[in-house]
């Protein structure tokens, strides 16, 4: 009785060993560092760049060590975290142009043999690392309104083509198109035409007499698709924009139906963060210049794609702009009749007219799509009093992302073909949409957490875990003697497994996550208390020690599982509906529940079996 087969002991040892292995990187404290990379992937990052960075730090009197050239970046470790921001400013001023991105970073000190096994430390959340937190809400109603405004012009055009004479076509309440007719025959013709041409719209009849109406609205499914498009597009645009801030590991993620969370570790200047997040980028459509075009009427632009730039360099485009990106309302990937990828582009009504006028007489010529990105770079200037100040100078970077042949006159909707793969088509669609936000966004919440406060949070969090663990260990030893010792060993194993699983999953440790760890300690011991209390009851009922141990574990099993499953359900709900900090707590709690069940049910049982199993026992130290 109370013996485990050998395979169970081996399984517990293997799991515990792997836990120790993958939790070990968290013992190595990362070094504060600055990382320098290129704005463009074509920019060469080599030893010369590292030398320039080290020279900038030497002139600023900032201590550093361990400079290394990585894949498309250089990294220099600093002696203290307080020198990160001064080091970033010194490097930016020394390099003096906008070709480089200088990012604050935490360089891992994990031994190479652990890294080769895929072991890495947990990432620190904003409340522990310091930085800026924004919660923004996307105005999804505006994307629906813009889409409906485009439909108004199309409805008029189709009704005129079908000779269904109408009195007026207007947009009501930004979501409903109302077309008015004088008689029933014209309304019937108009309704038949519109249902054929616009399958995504829902139509109904209203009015009477000489004021007969057709009302058109978008289906709920189409509205949801538009809202999803707006939020997804804004996510893509924001990710592109925060890269310019020089943040090592920014978090830009969707929250709920129409909100976006932006967390920028290491950034302390909210004004700078807001400026970058709200920056503008654009698109321009121009015809390719003819060979006899005057130099004053054309411009040369490079391709944005690195391979095309290496192969062709660039192309000459006319200075005259057909339309700009403000006229693009949608760009989606599709496939032509032969199954090749293409990008379907939708313009607003005014943009459609301008595009048609420009292309109907230029069939056979190539049209270029320019991606225009505004950049702000620091520049030293003298103010009115002769003092040196740093100002942000704006420059527009224009590169060609598409150069395709016009096969027929284009209108509000057209397609771009000649793309090599679906991945290229998807990238082009994203670039076409990322010139501007798909819908306006509003700052709902903003927080700034200083690096010193983050360090204090880490200190307080670690102290709370240590105090909680010490108190539980002492109580278990006092109340349960040898059984308490087994519970404490299992508890330490539980913490190791919890940290290891979070590290393997790449989970981010936050202050609420540390609270989840403290709660996990209590829950893990709670399972052991249930088992030990049941063993005591069985002893009082007259069972011999070995039978009492066996009955205690078996009878407490169902209560432990039920209690942990109900808590796990709550943790899953918290993660599903909660925001970032609440989700961090829920993740830690969920993992802790699973590891505590393993350590309490299997770990403690294995230790008790080693202490008492297969022996003649007259008294239990419980």
UniProtKB/TrEMBL annotation:
Keyword Transmembrane assigned: yes
Domain (SecD export protein N-terminal TM) ranges: 1-104
Subunit structure: Forms a complex with SecF. Part of the essential Sec protein translocation apparatus which comprises SecA, SecYEG and auxiliary proteins SecDF-YajC and YidC.
Keywords: Cell membrane, Membrane, Protein transport, Translocation, Transmembrane, Transmembrane helix, Transport
Organism: Microbulbifer salipaludis
InterPro entries on file: Acrflvin-R, SecD, SecD-TM, SecD/SecF_arch_bac, SecD/SecF_CS, SecD_1st, SecD_SecF_C, SecD_SecF_C_bact
Top-level taxon in the UniProt lineage: Bacteria
Family as reported in the entry's similarity comment: Belongs to the SecD/SecF family. SecD subfamily.
Protein name, per record: Protein translocase subunit SecD
Protein function: Part of the Sec protein translocase complex. Interacts with the SecYEG preprotein conducting channel. SecDF uses the proton motive force (PMF) to complete protein translocation after the ATP-dependent function of SecA.
Domain Protein export membrane protein SecD/SecF C-terminal: 445-606
Membrane-protein topology: Multi-pass membrane protein
Gene3D superfamilies named among the record's database cross-references: 3.30.1360.200, 3.30.70.3400, Multidrug efflux transporter AcrB transmembrane domain
Transmembrane segments: 460-480, 487-508, 514-535, 556-577, 589-612
Compartmental location: Cell membrane
Domain Protein translocase subunit SecDF P1 residue range list: 231-288
Domain SecDF P1 head subdomain residues, every copy: 315-439
